[in-house]
Amino acid sequence: MPYKPEHKRRTRARIVASASRLFNRHGFGGVSIDAIMADAGLTRGGFYAHFPTKEALYAEAVTHILGNNPAAEWDDFHVDFSAVGARLARQILEAYLSRRHHELVDLSCPMITLSADVTRGGEEVRGAFRTVLAAMSGAFAAGLDGPTTEARRKSLALVASVVGGMALSRAVGDEALADEIRAAVRAHVLRESGWDAVEYPGDSCVLAAARLRSPGSRPAGLRRPSRPRRRGRP
After folding, report:
1. Do 108 and 193 share a structural domain?
2. Does one domain contain both 93 and 117?
3. What span, in angstroms and rounded, lies between the C-alpha atoms of 80 and 84?
4. What is the pLDDT of residues 54-87, one digit of tens each?
5. What's the pLDDT tens digit per position in 145-170?
6. Domains: count for the chain
């Protein structure tokens, strides 16, 4: 007797959830299909009923990470996704560089944990990775003043600073130095972007992590937002 469609959807979701955790923890190349299926409580034989390749699973795992917000259940969560422009960009920055995101490897941004593996992956893997980059750089660009071309160029530089800083923070193996790195990157990005003049609840790196939406799922207003009112600089 064939399984009902709902059973297949639940099974697929289990595979994707396990893959998301394991890819972040061990990298794309460090995880086998067998390991993913075992983590999901399934056997390898069922994998190909859901995905043609590991690359296809990776692409869906990235979409899963983009579409879920582990920080939503945290008491100290300070990202308001109804916000736009510089206000949202500031909140994403604070969450991204937080200690919680630093510690939460299993549910972290794929750009931190998987960049080295992606360079050896196929187009499907690279396309999924570009989706994450486009989501974050788009949110940052929407919070910057100036012409669209200049805002895009600057947003890519800011994303590179933030992602690279977090990767370095995790790699050093010294919590005091890791905190110092993230604080330095945060100060640099705030200064370069002007987001230090944007009000933020709890004006420090909070213990939170941000949901990065894909460009197609962001509200239309995020792309060309009105700038929030800023406090005057001293």
Report:
1. yes
2. yes
3. 9
4. 989 988 887 777 666 555 544 455 677 678 899 9
5. 999 999 999 999 999 999 999 999 99
6. 2
- Nearest alpha carbon to residue 118 among 68, 182, 168, 61: 61
What is the C-alpha separation between 198 and 227, in angstroms, rounded? 10
The whole-model pTM stands at 0.71
8 A C-beta contact, residue 125 and residue 58: yes
* Last residue in a domain, options 47, 66, 85: 66
Last residue of one domain, picked from the residues 19, 41, 66: 66
Number of CB atoms found within 10 A of residue 31's CB: 22
**Per-residue exposure over 10-29, b if at least 16 CB sit within 10 Å of its own CB, e if not:** ebbebbbbbbbbbbbebbbe
Residues 89 and 19 in one domain: no
Instruction: Kindly state whether residue 234 falls inside one of the protein's structural domains.
Output: no
**Would you say residue 33 lies in a domain?**
yes
Rounded CA-CA distance 221/87 in Å is 13
16 & 82 share domain: no
* Helix ranges restricted to H, the chain: 5-26, 33-39, 54-66, 85-96, 99-103, 110-113, 115-118, 123-141, 148-171, 175-193
